[in-house]
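INTERNAL AUDIT FORM
Audit reference: QA-55
Scope: verify that the stored structure record matches its stored sequence.
Auditor: D.O.
Record contents follow.
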Amino acid sequence: MAVLKVKFTKTRRDKLAQVLWILNWISVVTGVLLFCLGLFLKVEINKREELMAGRDVQYVPNMLIAVGLLACAINFLGGKICYDCVDTNKFLRWKLIILPYIICTFFFTFCVLVGAVMCYSMHGELEEALNVGLSDALKFYKDTDTPGRCFLKRTVDMLQIHFQCCGNSGYKDWFQIQWISNRYLDMSQKEVVDRLRSNVEGKYLMDGVPFSCCNVNSPRPCIQQQINNNSAHFNYEHQTEELNLWMRGCRQALLEYYTHIMQSIGLTVLIAWLFELSVLTGVRYLQTALENVLRQGDPDSESDGWLLENSLMETARTNLNIIKSLGKNNHIHTANNGDPNIDVPSTSKARYGPDNVPLKEVTESS
């Protein structure tokens, strides 16, 4: 029994072909949109690739770009097919192509769905990449004279100002690293020398943060040095007073930013998948309806269209049998030491005369 069988008149078939032609062109625009979204995400990731490490997160935008280009090509061809299917005679030129086209489009729609799922599943890998990348960026903040790290200070400062964040997980991350280069430390001061000697690794650690951590909305001048020293500042209590620094870590800020982008793109891709699936369903109905018209021989007659000619189980069983038969056709019988000619009668005991006839038969006939 056919699955979801629908009866089509000639008028309904023509209208279906016209609607599918329009929808395929809309799908081409959708493909361009997916391509642009993938390109936008790729640019946004590349902007801060110095702050990401340990994980390759480029596969999601690359997937979207590829899916967008494929959508343009597939739906352009689908629009041409549907446009010609208005005329039954023109359908004949596509009769052998349309079924492979539907199968390829089905797998393409599956790729679109995978792209949508990837947009939502990228959160964990993105967080790990940001965690490692930001930790390294903070460590190399002071290395403004080292090739490959010259611009990290500017990158981190711009990041903290733009996203209103401080450190990796918070402002206290700056307390655990030396973010001031030794070239800017006054070694003649006893306090500086003592601080360097007090650290096992000889680092200059202090309870201070870069200027980019300052909260510009605070009415008080920014306190970025001796943050834990209450006596160093007038009317100041760091444990109870809200500090005039950005409290949010940059990893959380970037993660929220990219997560918002990924969710918006994922929703768009999911809608595109549903749209592509509906177009594919319409093309399948059009194909089966037109093939049934050709069987009947009357282009103006009614015809049935369906998604599957048999039930889902029967279709799966039929395809499985086809695959098995292909395997048997390619199988070489290996019995009797694998000799395929083992059952062929031996000709060593027979003597043949003219015209390849055994001599015994020649003698009897004569």
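Auditor finding: record pair retrieved intact. The first helix runs from residue 10 to 47.
Action required: none
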